[in-house]
Amino acid sequence: MLRSLSVSMLLLGRVCRPLIICDQGMPRVTANHIAKLKNGEWSFNHFLHHGLVEYLDVNEESNALVALYESKCVPDTTHLEIEPFTVLGVVAGLIPYPHHNQSPRNTYQCAMGKQVGVMGCQPDAQFVLQLLHSICSSCSS
After folding, report:
1. pTM (predicted TM-score)
2. pLDDT in tens, 79-126
3. Residue 2 lies in a domain
4. pLDDT digits (tens, 9 = 90+) for 25-83
5. Which site from 4, 34, 94, 111 is most exposed, i.e. has the minimal number of CB atoms within 10 Å?
6. How are the residues of the chain apportioned to helix, strand and coil, as percentages rounded to the nearest 5?
7. Based on the number of CB atoms within 10 Å of its own CB, is 130 exposed (0-12), middle (13-18) or buried (19 or more)?
8. Is residue 110 part of a domain?
9. DSSP tag of 66
10. Helices (H), the chain
11. Which domain does 102 fall in, by range?
């Protein structure tokens, strides 16, 4: 049997998403855990600390079998989505009723949502001068 170990350096800003861990196709999170969350006894960090939920990055997801719904778990299932709409991602998850839209409309909405997500900042004075210089140079020629 061929065994390998792949070590990947975690890059800052790498998107990881939380998933419920499954053993033999059975989710580790039970109704008792959900009741503790609803009662305020537990927070999301408790789920992480007790090994019920873990974050997966892109490299780990390629080797995982993730089910959208608990009823779709099979013995080979390794993880379960916390909420099915999270499979779309952060920006696409904000689209209301994406399954009722045409695919190009959803793509357009995602592109527009990414433009809104920038943080405003005061531009550097040197940058503004360089920009004005390049605009004026192109206009005079």
Report:
1. 0.63
2. 999 987 777 666 676 777 777 888 888 788 777 766 665 444 555 555
3. no
4. 999 999 999 999 999 999 999 999 999 999 988 778 888 999 999 999 999 999 999 98
5. 4
6. 45, 15, 45
7. exposed
8. yes
9. E
10. 31-39, 44-49, 58-61, 103-116, 125-140
11. 88-117
